[in-house]
Design a protein that fits this description.
The protein is about 45% helix and about 20% strand. With about 290 residues, the protein is an alpha/beta fold.
């Protein structure tokens, strides 16, 4: 078997930054005796989160905190805001509860938050193209109250009928596919008196999509490594399946299907929150021809 890696794969800049911030906070917590917590899982990869827990970083349940039951727990602790960001009121609540806040929000997400606030303050009707249950979208909404989340072109059509004649600005969740964003934009643009498409798509996501498309033409099958709770990894896997080649989405090397070992050329890609170590483990297992136990 020949294993070919996508030219671009694995952890992006924003995730590496968040992981480094968490490890630095863990060291500070160990030296000072302060508990170290993340506001929800730091990144969408359970294996990476487990490694942080070994380093002394625990997870704070945002839902329990929002209900006001964990204020005592965060008092005197270090709390890390994850790469996906959080609404401003979360920062305020944590600080008021006596926590030392470490902001590990991805710089690209911060840029989207600032732009959404700026546009709302300037009188634009702001739409956010993305998954309304995603943490990043919640953070942008918190920065621009009154904005509306649009998940697909059908929802854009419903919104367009009520926003006809308005000045409409569209901001993208950084990890959605370009095609999804473009479809939503084309619908809203027809209804608006003035339309502004803010290109906030993350190059890391686009680069991985393009690299996967190129890789698909060189191999017989595709393996995508990453957390099942990772939006960009799920979209990578969807693209892998759409290529027409047999494809698998796995979190660890132990999940490799026996079928994949029947192919001569296997392509390997990974989502933007996937640690390098997991990619290396999968590649090594493929070369060793070790199927599931």
């Amino acid at each position: 078997m020949i294993v070919i890696r996508a030219k671009t794969l694995g952890m992006c800049m924003g995730v590496r930054k968040a992981e480094a911030a968490a490890l630095k906070a863990a060291a500070k917590g160990a030296a000072s005796g302060k508990p170290v917590l993340t506001y929800g899982p730091l990144i969408h990869n359970p294996q990476a989160v487990a490694e942080l827990e070994k380093a002394g970083v625990s997870i704070l349940d945002p839902e329990a905190f929002d209900a006001g039951r964990l204020d005592r727990k965060v008092s005197g602790s270090i709390v890390i805001l994850r790469a996906h960001g959080a609404p401003p009121q979360v920062f305020q609540h944590l600080a008021a509860a006596g926590a030392e806040v470490v902001d590990a929000t991805c710089p690209r997400v911060l840029k989207s938050q600032r732009k959404a606030r700026e546009l709302r303050n300037a009188g634009w009707s702001v739409a956010i193209a993305g998954d309304r249950s995603h943490d990043e979208v919640a953070g942008i909404l918190g920065c621009a109250p009154g904005s509306v989340v649009v998940q697909d072109s059908a929802e854009a059509g419903s919104l367009a009928s009520s926003w006809a004649g308005r000045r409409v600005a569209l901001i993208a969740q950084t990890t959605i596919k370009r095609s999804e964003y473009d479809e939503i934009a084309s619908v809203l643009a027809l209804a608006a008196s003035e339309f502004l498409a803010v290109d906030s798509l993350c190059p890391a996501t686009l680069d991985r999509q393009r690299a996967l498309a190129e890789l698909a033409g060189e191999v017989d099958a595709l393996v995508v490594v990453g957390g099942r709770n990772s939006a960009n990894t799920q979209r990578l896997f969807m693209s892998a399946k759409a290529s027409g080649k047999p494809a698998w989405h796995i979190e660890t090397a132990l999940e490799l299907s026996a079928e994949v070992f029947g192919f001569a050329r296997v392509g390997l890609s990974a989502g933007a929150s996937t640690p390098d170590s997991l990619v290396e483990e999968v590649e090594a297992r493929l070369y060793r021809q070790e199927g599931p136990c």
